[in-house]
Amino acid sequence: MVKDLALAEAGEKRIEWARRHMPVLDRIKEEFEREKPLKGARIVACLHVTVETANLITTLVAGGAEVAVTGSNPLSTQDEVAAALAARGLFVYAFRGENETEYYDCIKKALELKPNVSLDDGADTIAIIHKEHPELAAQMLGGCEETTTGVVRLRAMAEDKALLYPVIAVNDAETKMMFDNRYGTGQSTLHGIMQATNFLFAGKTVVVCGYGWCGRGFAMRAKGLGANVIVIEIEPRKALEAAMDGYRVMPLGQAAPLGDLFVTLTGNINVLRKEHFALMKDQAIVANSGHFNVEIDIPALEKMAGEKNEIQNNVTEYKLPDGRRLYLLAEGRLINLAAAYGHPPEVMDMSFANQALSVRYIVEQGRSLKKSVYSVPVEIDRRVAELKLASMGLETEKLTAEQEKYLHSWQMGT
Length: 414
Prior knowledge:
The protein contains 18 helices and 15 strands. By secondary structure, it is α/β, with parallel strands linked by helices. The protein folds into 2 domains: 221 residues, 3-Layer(aba) Sandwich (Rossmann fold), CATH 3.40.50; 155 residues, Rossmann fold. It starts with 7 loop residues before the first helix and ends in a 7-residue tail after the last helix. One of its GO terms (biological process) is one-carbon metabolic process.
């Protein structure tokens, strides 16, 4: 179920380009081809269907797995990539521009594989399995989740004793969170905004909602292009960090009249609301780079507007009764994937290496794990970092025997 199989050749070329910039995943693929550690695994992968994801899927298949692929966002699927994967004989249920019904139908179609491992980017597959297919949950070895939003949902399920199988929070691996979230989101969010609007950051006031790793990355890149950055944060330690990083910190009510561009990166609901829209200046732009399109209260904006126009691709103009115009980008969906290519392959190399090795861990250890949310085993996280350093031609310092002894002894004194 893809848009057009004739796009497969173009997709293959783009997949190969990304592969050349994903050396860690390539190394793991070679290992998987030799050892076939995923034989017997049936994997449903509800992920952004991009060139980087295609290389992850190829790695899992090389390891012996059967894989069904579906999109984790209606606007993030790259149709040529979906076509290329389908042309290889994989089960692919994804096309760009799905409506809500089609989106969930694609996930349900992928579940016909009767998977025993799930890969998620937002926990939608896990949610459907738990709500509609408890018989599938009973056979699951485990799953992986790659977003902050999804991990929050899954930890809530685990706390309520509602989680029916173990899940590894790939999002929280240091080689994912610190690099993918910060450098990947930082760069790709800028790319999406500029692709949609040709926005000049220099001299503008940019309001960054959330100062987790994604917010840090975007704030850093916006500042680097000359923007005056305001950070909105609910957590006092992160707010303090933002202030010491050189940003203004204030509540949204104070920032709303000042911003030229507002970007949400929180994982929470209704961050930008009616009371904020009422204070924004004429021609302010609002965009979201969190996983779901709930961070901006779009229904409230629709009710406030006297007129709504699609003025160009990925830009919707809302005219308010007082004459002000507010611009919503990409329907409030992930701006970096809806209007651009998403994260560069160099950072997704680490994220998907964590995914691949975590899947292997689940296949080998899943039956012994409790129904909980687990961190990526530290040995996997470290191995990904070591492989990435090696691919960059970099080496770490080594401890001497004396230093090793000192760090593990209390008897050597100071």
